[in-house]
Write a structure and sequence with these properties.
The complex is a heterodimer of chains A (418) and B (307).
Chain A: H1 2-25, E1 35-40, H2 44-60, E2 63-68, H3 71-84, E3 91-95, H4 99-104, H5 112-117, H6 128-131, E4 135-136, E5 139-140, E6 143-144, E7 148-155, H7 156-162, H8 170-183, H9 198-208, H10 225-238, H11 250-259, E8 264-268, H12 272-275, E9 287-291, E10 300-303, E11 305-308, H13 316-327, H14 329-337, H15 346-349, H16 352-357, H17 363-369, E12 371-373, H18 380-395, H19 401-416
Parallel strand pairs in A: 1-2, 1-3, 10-12
Antiparallel strand pairs in A: 3-11, 4-5, 6-11, 7-8, 7-9, 7-10
Chain B: H1 2-5, H2 10-16, H3 19-59, H4 75-82, H5 85-114, H6 121-133, H7 136-146, H8 153-160, H9 172-200, H10 205-212, H11 217-246, H12 249-254, H13 266-276, H14 280-293, H15 295-306
Classes of the chains: A alpha/beta (418), B mainly alpha (307).
């Protein structure tokens, strides 16, 4: 009898566990939601969202819990959460280069119908490039949480003293940098040169000089004359940069620009709050900004955060309502006023009051019109790393441009051929 | 009685021995021992054997952080061994050898000085131990600022002394030197502490006898202190080799493995493959290759422990 009783107990336990599991996976959407969990990355935007959330909680009675992780860990945590399918997060902030990885796995909900049918979101408020910014394989899986094209930042006082004008071409940009460097008043320019982020700046030059990572057939094409010219130009800029630029990422480069004497810089518009913060920047009153110079093309690299709803969230309707409130037409303006990064909406660029405090707003839709985001490839993290290494080899004099790009070409063939 | 006093032939001891009592007791003892050990073995299996088995399984599949992959045989191993593995192994060895070459002599030298019980020894000892108490991430961030070629205090001081400003983190060779120095700065106190403990446990008699025989300080050190201290130093060297192979935090903060791959060791490479590229299958293969490469180190550690 004993074994029978044991068997029956085990069967009852299995049945109870299965029923509990079924009940969990079939949680009804219409069920009243009293809490949401949102995954953010530490940034001025996260601080701004935290400032705004109490208002939403008061309006709806929904408690919103914010969890965060630094950039380096954020996407790993999100990926592991998606894999476990437990619905740990209802909303996630992610960087655009991860769009392909998330999209390829169906990890995020397609929001196309929701944004188009919403009367408050304002989908038409974006230029086409920004409407497509969070689209992967025809599905809108990431809404725009920030719009951060490359901008030219320059020191108006140094420009005035040396009689320089805002450069329209990369040749003029280098000529300005050389004049500033030779004057002994400041370093000519600064940008990130440290790998792996150097791949982002190098890619801008590759596009500007008419090159691309792959050709029309999808085969790597970084041995082209345009790629060699872009690499040579990038290296030439190192000669008119501060000594530490070679080991600088975007934050380090910006720090040099706002604390030292450096004539000009190419970096993302998202650095605006830092560059214009009198507590951090020594030159707030002397800083000017403009669209980046052109090469043989007008392409501007477009980056920025996305925000979306994981497919495993059990509260997708409530999550969408929060997103509509947070990054819809009204929410985007509130977010900016609360200290968050700007979202490139046409309405915001035309809002005189907003532009008064954020004069660079009109540049965002304009830059985005020529904007090109980083390649939406699942392999992008590995490609970016490999570009960074090969470009650094040139920057540090280990190899010449052509040799390094030949090696990069075979690296890319191998990565893309997997 | 007679039979009990007769020494039985070896083969008969087992065959004639009372089977019941002894063997039952032995089995019972064994089962009691096994019962007590079972939780520990289960724990070991759960935290070591199962993950190791899973790693081997993953290394044979094209597994990513999001996707369970298909079986691909040894392809991950081929990719690992034809990629950045060898340069990273080279850098790992450089860091390990440098850790021993720099940290052990300096740590031992400081321990010798502190062992003399000079005035202020207690204070110096406390101050010298401070770097060991800091977290590697904080150490990395602090030195990253100090070694900045434009704004760092190191080049600032060099400028005041009319020395050239060096690009500590931007030059391929100097970046390696920087990592070695920062690692040494943090870990010399550890070497010093263990060496000091070893020195203080040595008997005075051989040194006093050597002094009476007219041995110089150097002769006493070389022929008496050092040989007696060898077991302690052996342990110190082993610990430092293992720690330097695992070195990650300082490199990650200080150079991110750059410029290029100049400071990318095996730990950093494994992190990149697994977490940046999300290629967990290949990262598992790399982890297993690293374990195989480290077998001589484990063997060396065993030998040191035996001594």
């Amino acid at each position: 009898m004993k074994p029978n009783r044991l068997l029956m107990t085990a069967a009852a336990l299995v049945l109870a566990t299965s029923l509990a599991a079924c009940g969990q996976s079939a949680a009804p959407q219409a069920e009243k939601v009293d809490s949401l969990t949102i995954f953010l990355t530490p940034s001025p935007t996260e601080d701004a969202i935290k400032k705004l959330l109490p208002e939403y909680e008061k309006e709806t009675g929904i408690t919103v819990t914010v969890v965060d992780a630094p950039y380096d860990d954020a996407h790993q945590k999100q990926l592991l959460s998606f894999k476990s399918k437990q619905g740990a997060y209802d909303i996630v902030q992610f960087d655009n280069p991860f769009l392909a990885t998330y999209g390829d796995q169906g990890a995020l909900v397609d929001l196309t119908d929701k944004v188009k049918s919403s009367s408050t979101f304002g989908y038409d408020d974006f230029v086409p490039a920004l409407q497509q910014y969070g689209v992967y394989d025809g599905k809108l899986i990431g809404l725009n949480l920030s719009t951060e094209p490359f901008l030219l930042w320059y020191r108006k006082d140094i420009y005035a003293e040396l009689g320089l004008t805002v450069p329209k071409t990369w040749d003029e940009y280098y000529a300005n940098a050389k004049k500033i460097q030779d004057s002994g008043k400041a370093d000519g320019q600064v940008m990130a040169f440290a790998n792996p982020v150097n791949s982002w700046w190098w890619l801008q030059f590759l596009w500007s000089f008419g090159g691309d990572l792959t050709d029309a057939n999808g085969a790597p094409s970084v041995t082209s004359p345009a790629a060699v010219a872009a690499t040579e130009y990038y290296k030439k800029l190192l000669e008119v940069s501060p000594q530490s630029a070679i080991s600088s990422n975007g934050d380090d480069a910006t720090s040099l620009f706002i604390t030292q004497d450096v004539g000009q810089m190419i970096t993302y518009s998202g650095y605006w709050p830092t560059i214009m913060d009198p507590k951090q920047s020594k030159h707030v009153d002397d800083i000017g900004y403009a669209a980046i110079p052109s090469g043989t093309t007008d392409i501007v690299q477009l980056t920025g955060w996305n925000i979306g709803i994981p497919s495993d969230s059990k509260k997708q309707d409530a999550a969408w309502k929060l997103l509509d409130w947070l990054v819809g037409k009204q929410g985007s303006a509130s977010l900016l006023k609360a200290g968050g990064a700007a979202i490139g909406r046409n309405s915001m660029a035309a809002d005189t009051a907003l532009v008064k405090d954020n004069p660079y707003l009109p540049l965002l839709p304009a830059a985005a019109t020529n904007g090109r985001r980083l390649p939406a490839l699942v392999e992008w993290p590995e490609i970016s790393n490999q570009i960074g290494i090969r470009v650094a080899d040139v920057m540090t004099g280990k190899t010449d441009s052509q040799t390094s790009l030949n090696e990069l070409n075979s690296d890319l063939s191998k990565i893309l051929g997997k | 009685m007679t039979a009990s006093l007769t020494t039985p032939a070896p083969g008969r001891v087992r065959s004639d021995a009372p089977r019941g009592g002894a063997s039952v007791r032995a089995r019972r003892r064994l089962s009691v021992h096994a019962t007590y050990l079972l939780p520990a073995w289960l724990l070991v299996a759960a935290v070591v054997v199962v993950p190791l088995g899973l790693s081997v399984w993953m290394s044979l599949h094209n597994e990513t952080m999001l996707r369970s992959g298909r079986f691909i045989g040894l392809e991950n191993y081929t990719d690992v061994l034809t990629g950045d593995f060898w340069p990273a192994l080279g850098i790992t060895l450089v860091f390990s050898l440098a850790a021993i070459a720099v940290q052990v002599p300096i740590g031992l030298g400081l321990a010798m000085v502190l062992n003399r019980e000079l005035r202020g020894t207690q204070l110096y000892r406390s101050v010298l131990l401070l770097p060991m108490l800091l977290t590697p991430v904080a150490v990395g961030l602090m030195w990253r600022l100090m070694l900045n070629a434009d704004t760092g205090v190191i080049n600032g001081v060099a400028g005041m002394l009319h020395l050239p400003a060096l690009n500590w983190l931007g030059d391929r060779t100097l970046a390696v030197v920087s990592v070695v120095l920062v690692d040494a700065w943090q870990n010399i106190p550890f070497v010093m502490l263990l060496s000091l403990a070893g020195l203080q446990s040595l008997p005075d008699a051989p040194l006093e006898a050597a002094a009476v025989d007219g041995a110089t300080g150097w002769q006493s050190f070389w022929h008496i202190t050092l040989p007696m201290l060898t077991p302690v130093l052996g342990v110190v060297v082993m610990i430092r080799i293992i720690e330097s192979i695992k070195l990650f935090d300082i490199i990650y903060i200080l150079t991110q493995g750059g410029p290029g791959t100049a400071t990318q060791n095996l730990s950093l490479l494994n992190y990149r493959v697994g977490f940046s590229f999300m290629n967990t299958g290949q990262a598992a293969a790399l982890g297993i290759v690293i374990c195989v490469v480290l077998i001589p180190v484990f063997w060396l550690q065993k030998k040191v422990n035996e001594q």
